[in-house]
Amino acid sequence: MSDSLVCVSDYERQAQRLLPKSVFDYYFSGADEQQTLRDNVAAFARWCLYPRVLRDVSSVDMSTTVLGQRVSMPICVAATAMQRMAHPDGETATARACLSCDTGMMLSSWATSTIEQVAEAAPGAVRWMQLYIYKDRALTQSLVRRAEEAGYKGIFVTVDTPYLGRRRDDVRNRFKLPSHLSKAFLLRIPRGELRQLEIQKSITAPPYISALLPPFPSAVTQHELHLNPPGDLRSAPQIKAQQRQQGAIEHELWCLDKTPAQMANFETPDLAFSSKEGYGEDSGLAVYVTQAIDATVKWDDIAWLKKMTFLPVVVKGVLTAEDAKEALKYGVDGILVSNHGARQLDGVPATAVEGKVDVFMDGGVRKGTDVLKALALGAKAVFVGRPVLWGLACEGDKGVSNVLEILREELHRALALTGCRSLKEVNRSLLRRSELISR
Ligand code: FNR
């Protein structure tokens, strides 16, 4: 598939074809009129690059550090919730991809894999924990402790979500997690090996399959295939493949992964966003946030967090110089300029802003030139959210790696074509506001 997917927009279009509508809508949506969502991408086009030439750009060093951790490029993965709706491997696939691309991953508090599972999937990878501050502070503290113990290297505390932004499609879809992250999997068993597999009950299939065992499911026909949600498009091409190849393979088994869908870091159904009672006539996640997340959070809570953990703390979701200065007073270790992918307050500025302090940014980064512009405006590194979900939906960890490699290659080219041999040479002089492109 990846041969035909050569840029982030290709992955986005393909993911839209593959994902159930309510999942794509949840991943894609911005708040309210989605003005900021459009502007997050458009804002980059309001800057033009002014390249320097004749500088021997045969070698370009893109490595940098984020919170003291070396990464091979200034492009890291932002926290996005509930990744196992995109692919059964979810966050563990993303972690593996980050390890193979030698870059860092921020894990959402609302992940569908646990803090520990993600650490195990990619030991040695640079991982940070995104934190929501819950009303229950002991619970909040336990998330931080678990991240510390599992080798995460920093806490990104999200400060822009005392309530959830109103994402209209999620309201229309009454968004909630599917009851099961059930997916159909096709196992191709080579001739003669089925018996052995039945006995051993360990197969060279990904771990989520083993949840089915024992007993190893008997061969089922296509008619018995359950899809959740019904008619999941992802499976359609596989069904066809099965029909075409029937002559060649002796046993083909469709298996169901019955892993319950939940935010994996929590024990009670209420906190795991899997309550049977449902979440009313609204976006289920909006109801969840009102119930569980603390709307009273203030700067003192950042002081509490700083005191509670030895990990560096970054505030995620700062948009004004005033708040950036305030954050520094509270001794934060970094600032992530972010409007939460335009999913919180609609009408806030796009995040391609000029920073007076050392900052990271996210929001609307879709191309290597976007990364270069963000760096030229003062960001130390950027984080990408949706592009990773599109890669995950299309091809699991391979898709995430491909998306990250596409961005790496594009940034490399952009640096070379502007005459920069390392990130140190990127500065504001590369950019001018485009007069020609109107808002
Ligand atoms: C997010 N984001 C987010 N942020 C956060 O702090 N905790 C979270 O759980 C999530 N979950 C989440 C889910 C989805 C589907 C999206 C799209 C975004 C925001 C995320 O970390 C980041 O700020 C934006 O995604 C960056 O914008 P782009 O790259 O998606 O345009």
TrEMBL record:
Cofactor(s) listed in the protein's UniProt record: FMN
ATP-binding in keyword set: no
Organism: Labeo rohita
Pfam families reported for this sequence: FMN_dh
Record flagged with keyword Oxidoreductase: yes
Keywords: Flavoprotein, FMN, Oxidoreductase
Protein name: Peroxisomal (S)-2-hydroxy-acid oxidase
Family annotation (InterPro entries): Aldolase_TIM (IPR013785), Alpha-hydoxy_acid_DH_FMN (IPR012133), FMN-dep_DH (IPR000262), FMN_HAD (IPR037396), FMN_hydac_DH_AS (IPR008259)
PANTHER family: 2-HYDROXYACID OXIDASE 1, S -2-HYDROXY-ACID OXIDASE-RELATED
Domain FMN hydroxy acid dehydrogenase: 1-436
Catalytic activity field: a (2S)-2-hydroxycarboxylate + O2 = a 2-oxocarboxylate + H2O2; 2-hydroxyoctanoate + O2 = 2-oxooctanoate + H2O2
Family per record: Belongs to the FMN-dependent alpha-hydroxy acid dehydrogenase family.
Superkingdom: Eukaryota
